[in-house]
Every structure is written in structure tokens, then in C-alpha cells.
Amino acid sequence: MSKASPVNAMITAVGHYVPDRVVDNKYFESFLDTNDLWIQTRTGIKERRYLDKDKPNSFMAIRAVNNLLQNRGISAEEIDVIIVCTVTPDMPYPSTACIVQDAIGAKNSWGFDLSAACSGFLFGINTGAKLIESGSYKKVLVVGSDKMTCISNFKDRNTCILFGDGAAAVLLEPTEDKEYGIIDSILHIDGSGGEFLYQPGGGSLHPASHETVDKDMHFVHQDGKAVFKVAVVGMADVSEEIVLKNNLKSEDIAYLVPHQANMRIITAAGERMKLPPEKVMINIHKYGNTTCATIPLCLSEYWHEGKIKKGDYLVLASFGAGYTWGSVLVRWAY
Ligand code: UT7
Fold first, then answer.
1. How far apart are the C-alpha atoms of 307 and 299, rounded to whole Å?
2. What is the pLDDT of residues 208-244, one digit of tens each?
3. Other C-beta atoms within 10 Å of 108: how many?
4. Residue range 182-331, CATH number
5. Fewest CB atoms less than 10 Å from the CB: which of 34, 169, 282, 293?
6. Do 182-331 and 8-178 have the same topology in CATH?
7. pLDDT per residue as tens digits for the range 153-206
């Protein structure tokens, strides 16, 4: 795709952090009418990680970023912009980006939180890439971090079994070699889907009150079947579309990197792209749905395992609340 900018944004480092506490499916059997077999068969999840109750989301984001800085071998003072993609900020304000900035000592940066639910990381990486392409910034951190346990309703078997806590980050820097980096993106929102996946309490519509707490309004509310139907088509469509739009074939794609909400949605997207299972990045079995962290967590883990090579084409794809969905084509540059 030809772009006016003389540079592309490329990913030059990754990092991640997951809490130590592993929670398997059997954990839920003691207090909910559910079982390991149902959860594994319907979702692909075997276990997830839970952060301690007294620790905020930024605890994970800070550690993911420090891991990234160590991998890149740079100091936090070199960072220009911090974008934290999340639905579970430590608090409405200050932004979690400010909390991360202070903790890591990124004295020369500005930044903000980005809210786009499960598509947050894709919207963040696209926004970060545009900041790099503008020529104004050289090092943009894009963090996906969510403490989903703080908005999970442990009385609702339909939702609480799905989620986990985790954080991961990528660093974007410019490259003059326009064959590499963030090559293209296709992003969408459709607010008519809002009623099927939302958190009603805690915002200006229903500020926190005894009533909102009594009615469990600060938790995730999801019509799973309704979301499943659109997600399975939406994520597959947009993954296939970006490959065709860039005149690539399935054999050219090293990995599909899908949002990890349900193994059946992931498999459908991989099949539509005619990719063998080993070319689809998966971590849902270990972490469940970590919302904004799923995609960068896959990237960071696969990179640490030496499975991503320079020149690899990756298709990042997501579908989530909003509705929000999209795909980003990346050619790995290091
Ligand atoms: O990440 C953001 C985007 N979100 C998604 O992409 C999630 C999309 N949706 C899904 O992944 C799936 O719809 C779920 C995993 C949430 C649910 O799977 P499903 O196959 O769509 O199940 P269902 O909601 O249609 O429920 C089937 C049955 C129901 O029982 P009846 O009515 O058939 O008797 C549920 O009550 O399974 C029951 N059920 C459970 N049973 C055991 C629902 N949750 C559970 C559970 N354990 N945890």
C-alpha cells in the first residue's frame, strides 16, 4: 500500500507480564454449575492467570513495559509516547498511561489510555503507527493490559470463566524500508452492537451507587451467543480482506494473530484464511480472554520462543465490544 509518509512504523521490541497465580477450570466447579469439559470444549480455555486483588492493572502494565525496555536495551527516557489500551484502567483518571509513565521514569513522553475493548490493541497499534508516520515521534509504546478479574461476575457462569489478567507491549519505531513494519489496517466500529457486550455501571450513565453495586452493574454483561455469531464472521472477513487487499496469498502469511476470545472463533478465522493450525497463534488455553492483552501477549511469547522471523507477514485480527473489529498487516522487521 503506498503511503505519503517516507517512513513505516515497525515493531522493534515486545514484552509481557502475566501474574503467577494459575486458575484452572476445576476452580469454578466448587461454586458454579459448570465443569472443565464444558469450558474446554466450548471455549478452548484450560486455565487463566489472576492478579492479586490488591494490585491494579498498572502493576502488570509496568512490568510488561520494563520487560520490553530490557529486551530493546533502551532507557524509559527515550520513549516519546505511551498508549495504554485497556477496559480496566486503575481509575477513570489519571490515565493508566500516566501511572505507567511515572513508574518507569519516561520523563520525556506524553500519552493516553485508549478504549476499544477487545480491539483496543489493534486500534492502539494503528494510532501509534500514524504518530510514527507523522515524523513527529520516534518511539511509541503500545501497551495492552487488562485486569479482567476486577469486572468479572463470579456468580455468572456465562462470563467469569472466560477471562484472565495479563499485559503485553510493543515498541514502534520508524523504518525507511517500507517493505517492513505496519503495512496496512482495516478497522471498524458499529455501536448498534453495544447492547450485547457492555459494563453498565460506573460511567456517567449509571454512576457508582449502592443500587449499581446491588444490581451487579460493574461487571461484564454479555449475550455470548449473539456476540459469537457476529464475531465468527467479522473476524474471519476482515482477516481474509486484508490479505487480498495487499495482493498476498495464504502461503505468504506466517501467522494469524487473533484476539483470544473463543477457540471456535479463532479456528473459523484460520480456516477462512486456509492456514494450517500451526500458523495461528494461540494462548487462550493458558490465559483465557485477557481483552486488550491477548494479541501482544501472543506476539511477545512467540517472539521469546524464537518463532517469529524477520520478513514474516503477520495478520493481527480482533472482534470485541462496541462492536469493534479489525485487522492489521505487519511485516516483522527484526
Ligand atoms: O472478547 C470479546 C468478544 N466476545 C466473544 O467473542 C465471545 C463470544 N461468545 C462465546 O465465546 C460463546 O458464546 C460463549 C463461550 C460465551 C458461550 O458458548 P455457547 O456455545 O455460545 O453457549 P451458549 O451461551 O449458547 O450456552 C449453551 C448452554 C446454555 O444452556 P442451555 O440454555 O442450553 O441449557 C448455557 O446456560 O451452555 C450453558 N452454559 C454453561 N454450561 C456450563 C453457559 N455457560 C456455561 C458454563 N458451564 N460455564
1. 9
2. 999 999 999 999 999 999 999 999 999 999 999 999 9
3. 12
4. 3.40.47.10
5. 34
6. yes
7. 999 999 999 999 999 999 999 999 999 999 999 999 999 999 999 999 999 999
pLDDT of residue 108 exceeding 80: yes
Q: Does the reported pTM lie above 0.90?
A: yes
Is the CB–ligand 1 distance for residue 198 below 6 Å? no
Q: How far is the CA of 329 from the centre of ligand 1 (A)?
A: 31
Chain CA centroid to CA 201, Å: 23
Sketch the domain layout of the chain as residue ranges. 8-178, 182-331
Locate 143 and state its grid cell.
501497551
Mutation to probe ligand 1, out of 40, 151, 158 (largest number of atoms < 8 A from CB) = 158
Ligand 1 atom with the smallest distance to the CA of 231 is: 6
Q: How is 292-306 classified by DSSP, letter by letter?
A: GGHHHHHHHHHHHTT
Q: Which CATH class is domain 8-178?
A: alpha beta
Residue nearest to atom 35 of ligand 1 (CA): 158
Give how far Cα 56 sits from Cα of 86, 104, 130, 198, 326, Å. Answer: 12, 16, 30, 21, 28
Residue 2's pLDDT band (boundaries 50, 70, 90)?
very low
Q: Residue 258 belongs to what H/E stretch?
A: strand 253-258
Q: Dihedral of the CA atoms 93, 88, 110, 9 (nearest 10)? A: -160
Q: In which residue are the cell numbers 518507569 written?
A: 104
Contact, 94 vs 270, CB < 8 A? no
Bin 6: left if φ > 0, else alpha if -120 < ψ < 50, else beta: alpha
Beta partners for 213?
none
